């Protein structure tokens, strides 16, 4: 735990008692703050009360006695409308912040300049966060990893000069962190997302930019326009404190950037830095970008080239993100259940050929129409879930398909089809391009079921 001493002796309101909210309440209490916590979910309130946290419905609280409202990132700050606690806090003239802001203040008070790597982006955050942490740990560094990747930041050990915090940040978390100041800030990419919570794409991009603006050093992917503009703006601010990451799609290379071509990560002058071409857990151009970012961060933190390469080579990958489940004869089975929209599935389709594609579920806007350019990579499609009719209409005449309805039927059919295809390296790929909620409670459950079905094949 990281006790929060910067609110010692003061009263704070806290709303949202999920895992991160409960960790925040305990950290504030451990640091000497008086915490009054609440949640619309009775289970969260009961858990907090059971751990000695004072709970009370904040609608009836005297807000004049609070120094701040600590808000869970899952609770609306601005859109579609501010949560009622936000309105009460503003009426009382107190600040609204989140757990990342508390960590940043504690870091400045306890160990100014302690290594703090913050990673954001629309896609690839979790893989990049885990990869950076893995490289650093492999090199023997004391690493604490958390944030949006699943472990509440205030559950981690406190900042220290010899300890590196590697933290994934969502746009919601950044929005609640006005003094975000990582030693290394990473922006992977920006595409439209969470507009229901931020109002406009411009506002969403501006929130992402704040992570870079507060960084001592910045590592920015420049393969999309908004991120490239942010990198350019940061470079104009004075000394060259930024590293630009570029994965070229054609013969042209961007000058003054770390680039990846055929799996070779090269510096601005073209000198090779690392080789990820044969690392199976880092397949595809999107993972090459993640790897190049990790190389740049590790170099910024003083790691030698051989230590970086060793960390890259031993990275196991993350569950449900192009996870290699099994090789059965010539057939590779890949669990990409995290791909809940077409943009995510595109990354997997570009990484393989001779694909026996399992897709479907609860469709997102646009369906799979953006994936038409990759249909030539698909040998056969196996449709499951509520999106079957819509996806069949898009595939009609372009890709042979089978309606399977459920995942167990699809796995059996895809395994048989791939084995009989005669292709040298066929792939059975679960990359649904859909939410899971029509048949599963989460993408994790969907991926777990796929893994079990594949491992049960004779």
Describe this structure as you would to a colleague:
There is one protein chain. With 458 residues, the protein is of the alpha/beta class. It folds into three domains: 87 residues, NAD(P)-binding Rossmann-like Domain (Rossmann fold), CATH 3.40.50; 213 residues, Mur-like, catalytic domain (UDP-N-acetylmuramoyl-L-alanine:D-glutamate ligase); 133 residues, Protein-Tyrosine Phosphatase, Chain A (Alpha-Beta Complex), CATH 3.90.190. It contains 15 helices and 22 strands. The strands form four sheets. Strands 7-8-6-9-10-11-12-13-14 form a nine-stranded mixed sheet, sandwiched between helices. The chain is globular and about 70 Å long. The two termini are 46 Å apart. The mean pLDDT is 94. Cell wall formation. Catalyzes the addition of glutamate to the nucleotide precursor UDP-N-acetylmuramoyl-L-alanine (UMA). It is found in: Cytoplasm. It is an enzyme of class 6 (ligase). Its EC number is 6.3.2.9.
